[in-house]
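S.,

Sequence below, as promised.
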Amino acid sequence: MATCRLRSGHGNWVTGDRFWNRRRELALLGSLVDEGANILLVAQRRMGKTSLLREFQRRSDGERTCVYVDLQKAKDAPEAIVEISLALKRQSGLSDGVLSVFGNTIEKLGTMVEKISIGDLGVTLRAGLNAGNWSKKGSELLEVVAGSEQHAVLMLDEVPILANRLLKGSDYTITPERREALDEFMSWLRECASRHRGQLSIILTGSIGFEPILRQAGLSATLNSFAPFELLPWDDETATGCLIALARQRELDFEEGATEELLSRLGCNIPHHVQTYFDRLHETCHRRGDDTITRDDVARVYEERMLSTRGHAELTHYEDRLKMLLGHEALPMALDLLTEAATVGHVSDEALRSLREDHERDGFQASLALDEIRRVLEHDGYLRMTDRGLVFVSKLLRDWWKARHGFAYVEVARR
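The prediction came back faster than expected:
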């Protein structure tokens, strides 16, 4: 392993010579797909879900028909069908099928079917799809995918973001109409997954908790036909191998004990955090013209760079996603709970009771919200339960959160 080299991904999804390990996960995913399973890929943020799907797609070339669709920008169900259509249009062997499904729509809008481009197709379909016809056209598209000569895999990324938009809108408020819209979309997905079982496998994934969103809507049963597949952090051996391979690529060495120190500070080997830490160390060595990463480098870079409140959009995103899941009213209590865990090291049962009472005095129904907040924070990998109470899963996120929020925070025991 020490002779391997690895090129950094620099924050993006990666495949090929930038993709590290995950052999067992890729093999298991392939086995489930070939058995005809529909899959819910579950993992906390920055674990490499998109990279896993993209690498699976690359390695499936010639064996399976894999279509990757990013639904992050889709605002509603019709736009989701547009994104699926565009992904199929780019796929060799499926492009004609897309045009056959939407030929009449395209011609009605005055465009020649045989001359339609990807960009024009997106504009045209957005004009022609609506609440009344999206599910019919979507079902016809999936018929095209399922009709592939090879076993087909439709990989739908960032479905929870779309689900959250359908359920809560821009004001983060659940209404009966929005719940009905989410129910219609999820029921359509479940029905398609069931109808094409054995011909088409659908993989759902995203960077915020899907199950908490559906639970808030009372629609958890819509995922019953999808087998959960959890993507876990790297073990120490895999993370160490990655660090050494990254160093070899840049003609660097680690001082004895430096990799162990690095992993100890992270506390959880989230692939993106491992590689980000290395990139900061590489910059440090490059600036001083040295080729050895020392334990002192690891400590200094962690304090000065990894915990900086600047240049960490991926960590700031943890806050943004909480707002999406919990809304304006529950967010302050969630932030207090996380800050208590960061500053004290854990949240005891007594602290939970005190936080609930504090927020109830502010007029918030904290007793009703606390269980949901805890489920969201545990499900999405912020916190885990221990004998001491709730603690951060990631030491990096804990220390960064403390540096960002702990200065003005008064611990529950001191109030």
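The mean pLDDT is 90.

Coffee later?
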